Target: GGDEF domain-containing protein
Amino acid sequence: MVIPWEGTSFPTEANRRTSAESLTRILVVDDEPSLRRSVGALLQGSDRLIEDCGSVAETLARLNTRSYDLLILDFRLPDASGLAVMDWLLSNDRRESVIMISGEQSMEAAIGALRRGADDFLIKPYGADQIRRAVTGALLKRQSERTHRLSQQRLQSSEQMHRYMVENSLDLIYTLDAEGRFNYLNLRIESLLGHPRNALIGKHFSEIVHPEDLERARYAFNERRTGPRATINIELRLARNPYGADGDDTGPVAVVLNAMGIYNSVESRSPSHYAGTYGAARSLPALRTIEATPRYQTYHDPLTQLPNNELFQDRLNLAITQAKRRKGLIAVMFIDMDRFKQVNETHGQGEGDALLRSVALRLKQCLRRGDTLTRHRSDEFVVLLPDINDQEDARAIAEKVLLAFRKPFPLSEGEVLITISMGIALHPEDGDTAEDLVQHASVAMHQVKGDGRNAYSFFSPDMHASYRTRVSLEKELRQAISRNEFELHYQPLVSLSQDRITGMEALVRWRHPSHGIVAPSRFIHFAEEAGIIHDISRWVLETGCAQLAVWRRQFPDLRLTANLSSRDFDQSDLSDTISRTLSRNGLAAGSLELEIAESLLLENTERVAPRLQNLRELGVGVSIHDFGTGYSSLVSLQRFGVTRLKIDRSFVRDMNGHGNHPIISAIAGIAQGFDIRLAAEGVERGEQMQTLDGMGCDEMQGFYFSRPVDAEAATRLLRDFRPSRMGHGNNGVPAAS
Model:
């Protein structure tokens, strides 16, 4: 309908026919009548004829019967998107100008409209001046284009016209030589990026490319293809001249780039040769008025602001394509932070997030300008190293990363030292696809994890077997608990002064359905890495306490000793779990002693100390089972409330007769000085027992007394123990096999 504006004179039908060419026809398309009326009121004028409608169908019906100079088109309409109207215009070779309006903060909507030739893209709510400027600009551009078309018709075969079009194009037009250096740029470079045209002639195209888009840019700016296979509508960011006239606006400019190869021939019959690349870049001006963040976050990790996996895969695929073309090498590094979960457990997620950002920054500082770093998952990062000469280039970067991580990371309270494990895969020898390279780098990283962490390794084919074994073992471990494949064996702790067994140490065994009994040394490490150790530890405590409750009916002073992994201290509810286990089985806290490795005292004290303090407040004993092999301080023995030191079997094994044993004497002195109980493990001979007894060690365990045995055999040990035969042969204690 024609809007009958009150107080406005309208031409007669005859005048309308004679003046049709001089009127500017505008069609307002929106499903809100009030908005259509307000837009019409803003834009009315004696030289304008304004109509309106509210759907895509009605719009297409109008366009089938008449033409317009300008469509003001809502993006979201009842029957379809406004983009459908623009598609119709393109398919019918129509020249109507379009201003798209949207109530959505959608980067995809803006790009879709601008790619289809929209003159502007406005976000609701918009100001009256904003839409007036947009309409004026679109109509001026249309008039300019109309004038331009007339000029083109008059001068279409003229070199002068060609130069005019190129120089005054709204697109940035350029040509590069075969080495990627500019040999022509139109004047648009100065208004778009602020670079003087003459200053860039002879310079490499990387001078104007945003650093994070350099890898993608290499693919487009080195385009050699022509025709349909050439680069079309690739999105890039170009860097402004930081010293340009518009000093306050130094952010990158988003463009859509088309490029094709240029070929010359010296003679008509000679084959053409590659001379360089021709390209045209159209800016996306509306992206500066819309929040740039939504699009940026689509391709970047919101926490670290690194390129996300989607963008990384895109760059990796481009790098592989270029490497194949140049017969070059690229590397992929898979990086995992060792024991990051402990930081989250101890300091909270906020500190964990801050640590991830710091790690991302430090990794980025170790890389080259053209490398790409992404946060793959949680505490995992993947790096793309394009254009390396050989394996040594990747090794140099890996060494640089390891060196950088020797410096601790600051937290709000104190510092934390983080180690990393890295795996490296090379193209083409380790994989021909992005998926293979990332997977093989991951396999190499897991090999490092299994070998002790804080290192790097290059992928080799034989790692596949190890990796498959690891994955298979992890799967079987997860099923072992539900299938009741774990069992406990017990080894007695004998007191010489009391002539009795004072405790039983619970040792987990895995009865594998096809491999038989599996010792903990073969699966505990895998269980720790896979996060299954907590379930195994809970099972050991529950099963061991249930058995102790049975034994204490006949042997009321008997204690149970159970081992805890350092990873068990990741659990904030550790003491609650143990307390509930003791309560369910009717046991006093003093009847349980928990063994930990001395190395745990050297780890993050903010994580360990509160857990140990809670256990000591509960009344549970704490034993160090390999004391003397590490470097823990004497202060830590009091700080952590240690109740027993166990002399490590390596010191007992090296004992010779009744000679001097300074390490054992020192440990015994420490235990006596701090009023801590002392025990020895690994006692296999009578002279070892006698020497330890003479040095003040009263309690001991080892094969001399008994190997670890199942619960039934352990019950017989308790029942048949003969103190009167201590010190003679097998000391009256049957050494079970």
